[in-house]
Fold this sequence. Notes:
The protein is mostly helical.
Amino acid sequence: MATVLTNFDTWKEFLSDRVEQAKSIGLSEDSIGKLAFEIGSFLDEKIDPKNEQQRALKELWDVGDEEERKTIARLMVKLVQKS
């Protein structure tokens, strides 16, 4: 996981692959968004940002309330689906 997190483009590719896998097993967009929120919460608590993009996301995450954090998670999913 540490290697995936060092480069933001690599992280987006990794996340995109996981979103596609989730879709292929039939998870709904809502379920994928909930998983993205859980991943974001884990990263916030356990992982130090490795680049400026991650640092900006962490700062937004830290100032957001739960609903805003869920929005950030859903937006990350949308971002990687368009990549």
